[in-house]
Amino acid sequence: MALGRCMTTALEGVIAHVVTVEANVGAGLPGVHVVGLADTAISESRDRIRTAVVNSRLPWAKTRVVVSMSPAALPKSGAHFDLPMALAILAAQMPPSERLERALVLGELGLDGSVRPVSGIIPALLAARSQGFETLVIPPGNAAEATLVPDIDVVVAATLTDAFAWAYGGRDLPSARAVDAPAHTLGDGPDYRDIAGQREAKWAAEVAAAGGHHLMLVGPPGSGKSMIAARLPSILPALSTDQCVEATAIHSLAGTPGAVVVRAPFIAPHSSVTRAALLGGGSGNPRPGAVSLAHHGVLFLDEASEVSARVLDGLRAPLEEGHVRISRARREITFPARFQLVLAANPCRCAAEDASKCTCRSSDRRNYLSNLSGPLRDRLDMVVNVSGQAATLSAEGEEDSATIAQRVAQARQRAAARWRDDELSVFNNGAVPASYLRRHRPATETAMAMLAAYLADGELSQRGVDRVLRLAWTLADLDASPQPDIDHVGRALELRGVGVLERLAA
């Protein structure tokens, strides 16, 4: 009897848990038996692993092989178990390897022994660093991701032969930082200079970008709603290192291993999106949904009137909490979901901008946006009416995204400095706790009196007051003002669109 061991990870949401893969080669009929709550992908890997080992001209046991994965109660899924299982089986036929004892190994095997990219590299890196492992062995296709996490030795194994030679032949593997691996990053996107006219709507987008506010655009087809939304990431600041790590980890889990997210992502699901696709879920190991893929970026829902009311209401908790909880019978998985929401809708089904030219029945016009519940509308910071008459024929002389981005960056720097001085760990005005604003950072006395009047008249809820106050702070930052005054609050109320949706339904 011979026993071999290799360490790897199992994913639970965006958290990686260390898993010990043990292989026992003993007497019995030839075959590989896998135990330890493994899913179908792992069970089906037996033939793939055997073929890869044989084609790599490495020794394969001709007796019974039992592969155990512990902790046994932890569900395990994914093809990244291929390489650690193969190395554990090979290790059972060799003397103990100190390198394997101090390393985490991940990789999918091809039949020729090549090591293919896998999901979950970033969580594995974080787990390796926190658990004190010296080395992480990964596929070449994941090298770009590995450079995001410092303070750990990450090496690349292109083939099973290379990994085996590293473990037992003393051969060094190339560092991930030295591998010239193409990184899939967000490149240059569309620019605001392509939009002719629509100055007010573009100004609203600038305010949304400066403060991290949620935005709804209402207007007829062809007025530029989708164009304005699609260009919002072009004026958002580049992601910090920590934000890159978080966003890249989520996108890797969603099935894009090797992708490095360096700019704010833009996620635009179709209006027929299901609740599971939007929020995350699925059978077996839950996957992140669109709200998590948009983490540190923009979630755009076009034709919001066509999205199911039940699906839209699912956004209420993520908008407030910044994460999504997916509950199962035996466990609960949390995915981060701190995003900017942008909705776009026509004023009615016939899309007439002028109510006098609308051919819809009055009841249909009133109910057109009824899928947007009151609590969800209350969580929108801005509701902007995009008029088709505000468009122009030529885009000559329009501001480009780079110019707008400079103003956004300056406003965010002012906000960040203020909240840092107040010892708040927030990135923008939209994330500041409401109670803190009212007590420690209110607007001027006259401006707060105006908000009190709107609250007393029922035109604003308590949450609405808080969101107007956050919006006023963003306007003050754009104007380089030390405190929001009555003008900033008045403009915030206008951008908030108090009564806009009601007037459209009239």
Tell me what the structure shows:
- The chain has 506 residues and is of the alpha/beta class.
- It folds into two domains: 2-178, 2-Layer Sandwich (Ribosomal Protein S5, domain 2), CATH 3.30.230; 192-505, Rossmann fold (3-Layer(aba) Sandwich).
- Helices cover 38% and strands 17% of the residues.
- It is built from 22 helices and 18 strands.
- It has helices at residues 40-43, 45-55, 82-91, 98-101, 121-131, 143-146, 160-168, 199-211, 225-230, 241-253, 275-279, 290-293, 309-313, 316-321, 362-367, 374-378, 401-421, 434-440, 445-456, 462-478, 486-496, 500-505, and strands at residues 2-12, 15-26, 31-35, 64-70, 103-105, 108-109, 115-116, 135-138, 153-156, 215-218, 266-267, 280-281, 287-288, 298-301, 323-327, 332-336, 340-345, 382-385.
- The strands form six sheets. Strands 11-14-17-10-18 form a five-stranded parallel β-sheet. The chain has a four-stranded mixed β-sheet with strand order 1-2-4-3.
- The chain starts with a strand and ends with a helix.
- The mean pLDDT is 88.
What are the main properties of this structure?
4-stranded mixed sheet, 506 residues, alpha/beta, Ribosomal Protein S5, domain 2, 2 domains, 38% helix, Rossmann fold, 5-stranded parallel sheet, 18 strands
